[in-house]
Amino acid sequence: GGGTTGTTGTYTFSSHPRALQGRKKYRQEDQCTAGYYGNIMYDRRVVRGNTYAQHTIPVTAQPDPIEIQRQQEIQRRAVARRRAKAQLRTTTPLPLDGRIHIEVQTELYLEELSDRIEEVDVDTQTDAFLDKPPTPLFIPGKSGKDVATQIEEGELFDFDIEVKPMLEVLVGKTIEQALLEVLEEEELANLRALQRDFEEIRNAELAEVQRMEERERRYREEKKHRIIQQEEVLNKEKETADKIAARAFAQNYLADLIPIVFSTLRDNGYFYDPVERDVENVFLPWLMGEAKKTIEKKILGRTMLDILLRDVENNRRRMFRHNQPPGKK
Question: What CA–CA distance (Å, rounded) separates 109 from 196?
């Protein structure tokens, strides 16, 4: 065989044909074949799997050390991340002495687990066939001569002697079985006694655990009740302090507010003297009205006097013009 590399850098392999060596059907243990045959199933140069997205590396190409270092760093980070997750993951605490954990399903849908294999009975009916007639018994032809021998009673078998080994075996097995049953009953009695003792100890431990749980529950409830009471006391103290602070602030704020309000109301006219208010609202308006009427009357008299004086002046001027001689102007 040999390999060739073309101008494009693609490696190809070919094996020259040759005749097989003659060998036996079964191989001997000390026999070793001198020839070597190429099996492409174990040849590293044969590409397996999908070759569409495979990145072909030339034979003479060397791996990039930076890429190798980057891959190693990625693998190291992945391993460290998995270890950190494994350390942070909460595990089930170990059971107490003499106890074991019970496997409980935590899936959303429970599944009944059983060791019994589901069995289904299936029947089928075949067509009726006639039974084959019985084959006649083969009786070979008689050949030779008949010979008989007479055996008297007690010559071949003595019951009393031959039955002893069988009786010994039966009695021994019976006694052994009885002893085994007695030992088994004693062992069962001991196991029952141990089981009763274990149940008593377990019941006592369970009672103690329940008592401790009840005491812990009472402590927890009392602690919660005390915490609630303390919170209520603190809330009441805080509320009282807030009320006192609000009252003090209101007193300090209202101490200057009342005079300011009264002065503002007084300035705006909400607080007044009745006599002064009567003088301002009644007497002064009446006085101003009377003075106005008097002034209006005086103005009217002056106006009438001016009109009368103007009329008299106009009349005299006309009379003077009428009485003047024609030659004078």
Answer: 38
Per-residue pLDDT tens, the chain, 329 aa: give them: 555 554 455 666 666 767 666 666 666 655 545 445 567 777 777 777 776 655 555 555 566 788 888 899 999 999 999 888 888 877 777 778 888 877 777 777 777 777 777 788 888 777 777 778 888 888 877 777 778 888 777 777 778 888 888 999 999 999 999 999 999 999 999 999 999 999 999 999 999 999 999 999 999 999 999 999 999 999 999 999 999 999 888 888 777 777 787 788 777 777 777 787 788 888 888 888 889 999 998 999 889 989 998 898 888 888 888 877 655 55
DSSP annotation string for 37-70: ---GGG-TTS--S--SS-----TT----HHHHHH
Let me know: does 72 contact 63? Beta carbons within 8 Å: no
Q: Among residues 73, 15, 18, which one has the least CA distance to residue 43?
A: 15
Give the number of other Cβ atoms within 10 Å of residue 45's Cβ.
Answer: 10
C-alpha to C-alpha distance for 319 and 316, rounded to whole angstroms: 5
Give the whole-angstrom CA distance, residue 311 versus residue 303: 12
User: CA separation (Å) from 239 to 19, 122, 229, 244, 296?
Assistant: 109, 83, 15, 9, 74
d(CA 218, CA 214): 6
Contact 27, 36 (CB under 8 A): no
Burial (Cβ within 10 Å: 0-12, 13-18, ≥19) of residue 251:
exposed
Residue 278 token pair:
């009567």
CA of 105: how far to CAs of 57, 108, 282, in Å? 50, 9, 101
In angstroms, rounded to a whole number, what is the distance separating the alpha carbons of residues 182 and 134?
A: 55
